[in-house]
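Sample A.
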Amino acid sequence: MSILQDVGLDRYDRDARLKPALFAVLPIVMVALAWAPRLWTEKTGIVALLTAFGVTFLLSRAARVSGRNVEKRLFDNGASLPSVTLLRWQDSAIDPHTKQRYHTFLSRCGHALPSTEEEKADPAGADSRYRSASRWLLEQTRDREKFSLLREENIDYGFRRNLLGLKPAALMIALIALTINGAVFWAQTTWHTEDWVTFLILGFAILCAVSAWIALVKPQFVRDAATSYAIRLLAHCDHL
């Protein structure tokens, strides 16, 4: 971790961007370690590690871009971000009494939020005001130490968002890893018991990873984290 900090990766970079990339390349790394252990001598291991780190670092940058694209698609380019929808009077996720406190606080801070009637009359205009207020609130909560719980929610959201962004690449990498695993196994001149064990365990592990990507990493997986983050963000209206 200290090495990653030395090259400029803070905790958000490591947890929200680098970890999704590591999960994506893990099948290839598993296959290389299992079928080519001799390559992992002291010298070649360092080269391989640096290469893997470089690829993973590039993937982490790609995760950032693809994650933002996912966010735009999921939330209509910012129009339906949870921090906006939760402030709407018509949304029932936050009880009306708590929502009234948030509106009152934000209005006192210079963000005149719409009434129920104004929201119904001009939904787009109301959302624009909600968006402005939530952006202002986000800027007021940048202090990592003071708002550590909010930061945790932000990291969790970024992690899930970037996982979804990398999902196509991760599934392709897993398919390549399965192909390599099968090709190396069938290329053996004599099949020993340990070869069968390696082939089956690797295949099963990669298929489990594929199943996890397909079953868990879905839009709702990201929306849940985004909503939790937005609820935590708005809750600071009671503490600022």
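Sample B, a different protein:
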Amino acid sequence: MTRGEADGLRRPPVEAVERRTGGLVVRLAGELDLYNVREVSVALAQAADQAPERLVVDLGEVDFVDSTALAALVEARRGLATQLLLAAPRPDVRRALEVSGLAGHFDVRDSVDAALGA
């Protein structure tokens, strides 16, 4: 399922959720913050409910994450029976993961294909 175009002000935070060989990919985009973290959390929970072999969060189109978005990633991983991987973070997002100390707690890969084991 793919989301429509942005409303002119901000991109929708969840661009797509797609099943791929090796797992389920949740493609996020734009700014992830207090204003849209609920939508991100819901998408991640629904993806986790499908019990994929791997749950990959594609951060390749994410420009910014705040602490609430980082907390949503932590919450999504909590109690997950499958592997959760973060893929393709841009430099600013990677820096937020590093500064927060979360880079060492998540499996971060350079691409979605690498996260899927392709």
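Observation for Sample B: Residues 1-6 have pLDDT under 50 and may be disordered.
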